[in-house]
Amino acid sequence: MWPAPVLELLAEGGDRPVFEDGDRVVTAAEMLSLVRRIATGLRQHGLGPGRGVALRLSVDAHAFAATIAAFAVGARVSGMPSGLAPGQLSHLLERDDAVLLDDAAVRSLSGFPEKPIDVGGRPGDVARIIYTSGSTGNPKGCAQTYAAMSAAWAAHPDRWPPAVAELARRLDRYLVFGSLSSQVMLEYGILTLAAGGTLVAAHPPAFPGTIAEHRATASVITVGKLHQLVRAQRANPVDLSSLRALMVSGSPLEPGRLREALDVLGPVIFHGYGQTETGMISMAMPGERLDSVGRPPPVTSLRFQDGELYVRTPAQASFYWQDPEESARVFVDGWVRTRDLATLGDDGYLRLLGRARDVIIVQATLVYAGPIERALAADPAVAEAYVIGRPDDETGEAIHAYVVPVTGRTPDAAALRSRVAAHLGPSSVPKTVTVIDHVPLAPSGKPDKYALPAT
């Protein structure tokens, strides 16, 4: 049962370095000892199966150990997303009935005595809640059971699809940043341990300098950051000879942009497709079918309904935490409705065609247009508000807002952006706010916000 495979990797690792943070190098044996001590502390505080543990931690060895320890005692683990508005954080902690662990609390827990770990997870219990932006304005949590996490591929070389197996060979020094409890960062971190590599902490992750400074061989990168890295290498190249793999996360990567990145950075770009609800759906190796997102592995099932893709994966989430209505719309008879339009070619490659939902992906964060429109329309000077996403070199996609003023009033763009930040957090703030007389209409007579002019 999860996370037993991770504990076994650490137990077998001995003096092998598994985590590097500046001058501090932590061996597998030392990391296992730290996990055991924190797990002892968690149990002493009554945390175990059925209890919620919310993590808000920096990126260091203690944070990684605390994440694994929280799973080891069988708790329901959630990583608090960065950039939450205060009201959103309070809402999540109250709804989850979770104990918040910060860096100071974890340091205190590490002082408990080391004891052997009896993994406490029960198959049907929720192991973790992974948060993504919600259509109501409050983050929604994808609930993944211990059985689902145990079925995942990262810790098991015999389960690796070909693209993942190739990626694993390049994970000697995997650069970690942001949050070690995040789905992507943790998944590839476990893959790194299974491949015999080392997690290397970046403070902060400033590409390309951080890659060169740490001689990193691999990291995760958003589409926007990839565009910036390519531009930086064209203008002022630095030595990236150590780099062997960049896993592109979050937004679709256009074939032209992918080709440019391969030309500038070399054959290091692994791009693919996945969702918080499903985990990885497919992955393509560097230079493989640039117009696709790779081949789904045999354990992943696909079906299409009116062009919309439904997916079933062994490690998928089961439902949205305390949101039965949205769960019923997305988790359908064992399938996950992706709300993306796609095709599967005769060559076995998956190709994305567009979205069947009103979302914008900003720096790999899924943002719903509806809550932003409602926040803008609540301003006394705004009669109507419309929000769309457009490609952006900095963030992958950017949010653009259009507002129709109340007669005789003039909306204040800065005040509107501050209103959104206060209600929804910085990731939902529009890059531009444009005042318009009216919104274009589609032939049906309904507003056609995608016909609005680019700003």
Automatic annotation (TrEMBL):
This is AMP-dependent synthetase. Residues 372-446 form the AMP-binding enzyme C-terminal domain. InterPro entries: AMP-bd_C, AMP-bd_C_sf, AMP-binding_CS, AMP-dep_synth/lig_dom, ANL_N_sf, ATP-dep_AMP-bd_enzyme. CDD domains: AFD_class_I (cd04433). Residues 13-321 form the AMP-dependent synthetase/ligase domain. One of its GO terms (molecular function) is acid-thiol ligase activity.
